[in-house]
Amino acid sequence: MTAPRNRGSAPDPGHEPDHRGAPAHVPSFHEMWQDLRPLGRNPETNGYRRYAWTAADTDCRAWFQAQAESRGLAYETDRNGNQWAWLGDPTAGGAVVTGSHLDSVPDGGAFDGPLGVVSSFAALDRLRARGARPTRPLAIVNFGDEEGARFGLACVGSRLTAGQLTVEAAHALRDADGVSLPQAMERAGHDPEAIGADPERLSRIGAFIELHVEQGRALAGTEHPVGIASAIWPHGRWRFDFHGEANHAGTTRIEDRRDPMLTYANTVLAARKKARLAGALATFGKVSVEPNGVNAIPSLVRGWLDSRAADQDTLDLVVAEIEKAALERGERDGIDVAVTRESFTPVVEFEHALRDELGRILGKAGRADLPVLGTGAGHDAGILSGAIPTAMLFVRNPTGVSHSPAETAAEDDCLAGVTALADVLEGLACR
Ligand SMILES: [Zn+2]
């Protein structure tokens, strides 16, 4: 295979993998946060619109490169547009890598992604301040296009690297204006020629740790600002088609109607109930109606179900029960119901050995009995877990709100996350 292209400053072969040579002043967590804050923020909503390969994304990428270079780290962009900042020799093998993403969903919050990247730089600074001497290479990564807001597929940067997205499929991705992914990359200054699987790069990584704001309230109300991830829940999307009969809203007697909206509405209620009883999640977040007229009984209602659960059996059961409820209600309403599974992602269990090691390291550092949490959200760490040992740390989110401008975390909790990440990096890379 070809060597990964190095589009940034070349790794300095004489760079010592320790604190010597580090600049005396580097931006603090707070300063980095303030620097990043205005980039890609919509002034009307206060939400972030940092979509892959747009001007806002380019600004975030320039910020990352500047942070790397201000610390004397060797900066590079890999063939898939992910950014790396290295302390130590990237080719030595067994690297301990941390990081997350800087892109956002439409009108996303400030923390989902950036908290992991900013905390990574701050944790590295903490290690250097402690005088810790890494015996393994360390790297900070910003994975491109994690949210999939522009091209409709999440985790494109890590999927390409892990070989979970073929080059052909990547070329077929288009944004709402018909711009293809390679065109968008090229316009943003990244040569798309070499996109594709990068097993050689992955083979040089011994562990990947992603710190992320919690997207839920498991830590809220506990004494713990930080938790460890156990698994990413299995999840999928199902399309429910409810076929009825279009007719006049003013002249069709109630008893003569075949109204699919009624069946759909009952299915939404059933989904909520079945999910609640099983401890799972079920959401109809998107719906389309034909003919979509105020004074017309619909002929077709199409609703998309997103469902997630801690384990596959529970998820299968909940979706089967929702489907059954839809079919039964459809029979009563004279509606034909068809259900199609559109996508499915099985459970991702983070490697137990690495998770246990994180628990031990943090226990020794005074954080015993950290909560171990499952999550319903996807992450680059989940994509990479098939190829390399990965783990995640979650930072407490008082409201649990995510993918919204209301997403937040207390600065003290963020700094506790930095300390935990620094402890983990020291425990893994400085033995
Ligand atoms: Zn994220």
From TrEMBL:
UniProt cross-references to Gene3D superfamilies, sorted A to Z: 3.30.70.360, Zn peptidases
Organism: Streptomyces blastmyceticus
Region spans: Disordered: 1-25
The keyword Hydrolase appears for this protein: yes
Homology family: Belongs to the peptidase M20 family.
Claim: ATP-binding is one of the keywords in the record: no
Keywords assigned: Hydrolase
InterPro entries noted in UniProt: Amidase_Cbmase (IPR010158), Bact_exopeptidase_dim_dom (IPR036264), Peptidase_M20 (IPR002933)
CDD domains with a match to the protein in the record: M20_bAS
Pfam families per the UniProt record, alphabetical: Peptidase_M20 (PF01546)
Protein name, as recorded: Allantoate amidohydrolase
